[in-house]
Design brief:
Shape of chain A: globular
Number of strands of chain A: 12
Structural class of chain A: mainly beta
Oligomer: heterodimer
Order of helices and strands of chain A: EEEEEEEEEEEE
Helix content of chain B: under 10%
Number of strands of chain B: 11
Order of helices and strands of chain B: EEEEEEEEEEE
Helix content of chain A: under 10%
Number of helices of chain A: 0
Largest interface: A-B, 24 and 25 residues
Distance between the termini of chain B: 37 Å
Strand content of chain A: over 45%
Largest sheet of chain A: 6 strands, mixed
Shape of chain B: globular
Chain lengths: 115, 114
């Protein structure tokens, strides 16, 4: 079974600054997908960014980017120019590309943004 | 396009009762997955349905069951409720089965078991 670990329960960032959330995972597969989801206090989970394991290039979505280190099984999320609306719980998730397709989530990191 | 809807949004039940939660996926989506979210266990996968067939199942007891109808709407049932079943139950829909199918989540149903 795949295990996803987020070692930072909480992170705080000043508005306009940058924060990096860490995520590591354990898998014996070579083909998989990694995701970062955001869950604001309203509880609607939304996809922030996705990375295919076969792609070496790190994914970027506006102010959100990832640092994907396949050999180290590490998948961190960088939020640049943080905004008040970025305050939420962030979940790292793993999904196999070849076997069952369930999402395995990490425990989450709560991000607070200071004005 | 309307998003994923879940009903009811809040539910209070007592131990031993059973409950049915409903999920309506985004129009055209045929895959529906269910997740349980608790402070202690985090987000855990329950099951996934595609074209009315259960395609994948998580490690939950048989008290948790589900089904999907021909219009892709899905229901999840929990029988003989226990206190530990109190959780936020999230439903997610996808246009396709498999890893590439991006999952769109609903707002969840908050179940409280007294």
């Amino acid at each position: 079974a795949q295990t996803v670990t987020q070692s930072q329960p909480e992170m705080s960032v000043q508005e306009a600054e940058t924060v990096t959330l860490s995520c590591t995972y354990d898998t014996s597969e070579s083909d998989y997908y990694l995701f970062w989801y955001k869950q604001p206090p309203s509880r609607q989970m939304i996809l922030v960014i996705r990375q295919e394991a076969y792609k070496q290039q790190n994914a970027t979505e506006n102010r959100f980017s990832v640092n994907f280190q396949k050999a180290a099984k590490s998948f961190s999320l960088k939020i640049s120019d943080s905004q008040l609306g970025d305050a939420a719980m962030y979940f790292c998730a793993y999904r196999s590309a070849s076997s069952d397709y369930k999402l395995s989530f990490g425990a989450g990191t709560t991000v607070t943004v200071r004005a | 396009k309307a998003g994923v809807t879940q009903t009811p949004r809040y539910l209070i039940k007592t131990r031993g009762q059973q409950v049915t939660l409903s999920c309506s996926p985004i129009s055209g989506h045929r895959s529906v997955s269910w997740y349980q979210q608790t402070p202690g266990q985090g987000l855990q996968f329950l099951f996934e349905y595609f074209s009315e067939t259960q395609r994948n199942k998580g490690n939950f007891p048989g008290r948790f069951s589900g089904r999907q109808f021909s219009n892709s709407r899905s229901e999840m049932n929990v029988s003989t409720l226990e206190l530990g079943d109190s959780a936020l139950y999230l439903c997610a829909s996808s246009s396709r089965l498999g890893a590439l199918g991006e999952q769109f989540f609903g707002p969840g149903t908050r179940l409280t078991v007294l």
